[in-house]
Amino acid sequence: MIEVISTDRCIRCDICERICPAFVFDRDETGLPVIARQDDCQTCFLCEIYCPTDALYVAEDAHGPTGISEAEVVERGLFGTYARSLGWSRGRAGGAQNDPTRHIRVAQV
Amino acid sequence: MASRRKAQPEKDGRLIETDVLVVGGGPSAAWAALSAAETGVRVVLVDKGYHGTSGATAPSNTGTWCVPPGEGRAASVEQRFKRTAGLADRRWMLRAADQAYENLLKLVEWGYPFPSEEDGSLYIANLRGPDYMRFVRQRVQKAGVTILDHHPILELLGDDNHIGGAAGLVRRSGASFRVSAGAVVLATGGCAFFERILGGTGLTGDGSLFAAEAGASLSGMEFTGKYTLSPHGSSLNKGLPFRWATFYRENGEVLRNAHGDPVTNGIGGGERQVAEALLTGPVYARLDLAEPAMQDWLRRGQPNCFQPYDRMGINPFEQRFRVELKYEGTVRGTGGIRIVSSDCGTGVAGLYVAGDAASRENVTGGISGGGAINASWAIASGWWAGHGAAHHARRRQSRDAARLQPLGTAGLRGSGKRDDVDLAATAQAVHDEIVPLDKSYWRTAAALESSRRTLDDIWSRLGQTGPATGIERLRARELASVTANARWTVAAALLRTESRGVHRRRDFPGEDDAQASRITVSGLGKVTAAREILALETAREG
To answer: Which residues form the Fumarate reductase/succinate dehydrogenase flavoprotein-like C-terminal domain (chain B) (predicted)?
Structure first.
């Protein structure tokens, strides 16, 4: 579930709060997102790819927080990994035209 | 500069007037809204989450059932029909293939970035969830549809003869709002029974509860024995990579079938053995049958599937990892609101249904429509329901919002005799009656009867709880909805004393030709299950 919001990277744009399908975020008086309803997170990783500055990190466990720190996320280069693998960048969609899934579907049968 | 949320106090009791109200935010909601708007009527789409990210499609990468017109289409229907456990309808399959293909071509025309084949032609048989849903949201906006995000509907509104709107709440403020509409499309998705699957949080089967409260019935609720492999503890119920997996016991021993061969293909023949093995202990997998080219395609084509591994810091092609079977209820299972007309009407005037909220038996029978069929069904049924609702709204000239009565029951209008119902604990209890492998992968009369008693008791307690208030109304209604869906599932599963499709009875392992008909369920206080053929005969006699 969502675990890390980087206050350094975040530009207080309100996108994560708006697009989260599970309504997990609130914002504090400075506009910084706050993980207000963490247990509602559906671990869909979509807030990460909509974030224009790769400021969010969703850990892999869907049932509870893993306790990962921002320092570890930085050290392991995990900010923005899903966006990059899709071809999304700075919160903008991209890369669908390069999806090689058709090869998988042919081989699957 | 930081953009601050506008401090707008949400007025309680706001009334919105429209022609067609679409409830939901996934692909079927989008197609229903586009279809209705195309006819020139006013359309409002209300989503519990955010239209563009909510639902099971947005975080996924889905194939479509994409069959070009021509000779091959009838053959494709015929081939597919053979796998539907005898309960699909060829006419519906054909028209779904036709409508879905036509709408996929609309996506091409609108500029959706489909990948190209080697010969330069576009490959339209696959849609990447985040891109697809973001793209259709923009189309829906462009079509002039009013989108209300984070506005969950709590109940339908109706007069004596018609459904005339819905009432809900604003998540940010907890304030109430009402929509007066000429017709309503329920595109609320399936029911994930509180299982933490990708996109599943909002999938609490709300549409089925609303429809049942309005007098509609459901069908195919026993075809809910659907699970998909996932890395243990993750949300990634995406089976495709497991096509290339080998499975292992905890001690590293390879899992073998009755012939002594290694169990492979976790999305096909191997699934049942993996499920059996999971009853006795942990199971591990390694995607070791994927050649380097396939590894590359999987990584680039299914990047969501690799998020858990990358974050755990393991290489799934080389290292073993623990797996589980995630329950998928009516999301990849097949049951839902019963459709009674070609425009996806529910039999209740003014109420239409699309996507996973509807029973998909017409196109997939008693098996899972997960992936391709459900994606095409969402496109086609959304289109038909949108048209059906728009035409109904046009025919209804005089409407009086003041005459609309709220139709909601449990969670909204309890008697208040009890105040000891803990919503979270009760949600867990309902989940535990349906989700475990020995409850829904394999069913027995004894386990089903026990679940029936527990769930009936929970339903009756919910009815005696005082009405929830503010934002808590959403939780209360979601719990009521999942409980109702669980009770319908159990009732249908008890009546089907055979194994067919994704309904597996340990006590009736074979298919019984005499039971090759659909089962409908209805009712809230008292749940009734009936075989469709008998129901028809009774209607004729009556």
So the answer is: 464-522
Q: B298 CB near a chain A CB, below 8 Å? A: yes
- Kindly state whether residues B436 and B535 are assigned to the same domain: yes
B144 vs B38: CA distance, rounded Å: 10
Q: At residue B233, does pLDDT exceed 50?
A: yes
Query: What stretch of H or E contains B531?
Result: strand B528-531
CATH number of the domain enclosing B188? 3.50.50.60
What's the N-to-C CA distance of chain A in angstroms? 34
B141 CA to centre of own chain: 24
Total structural domains within chain B: 3
Q: Assign B9 a pLDDT band (cuts: 50, 70, 90).
A: low
Distance CA A42, CA B151 (A): 18
Structural domain of residue B299, as residue ranges?
A: 229-327
Do both B271 and B323 map to the same domain? yes
Sorted by where each starts, the structural domains of chain A and their CATH numbers stand as 2-108 (3.30.70.20)
Contact assessment for residue B237 and residue B304, using Cβ atoms and an 8 Å cutoff? no
The answer to whether A85 contacts B300, with C-beta atoms less than 8 Å apart, is yes
In the predicted structure, residue B542 carries a pLDDT above the cut 50: no
| Tens-digit pLDDT profile for residues B334-372 | 999 999 999 999 999 999 999 999 999 999 999 998 879
What is the overall mean pLDDT for chain B? 94
- pLDDT of residue A51 exceeding 80: yes
* Gyration radius of chain A over CA positions: 15
Supply the residues of B annotated as catalytic: 272
Determine phi and psi for B287, rounding to 5 degrees: -85, 55
Furthest C-alpha separation in chain A? 54
Q: How many CB pairs under 8 A join A and B?
A: 158
For residue B248, give the H/E element and its range.
Answer: strand B246-249
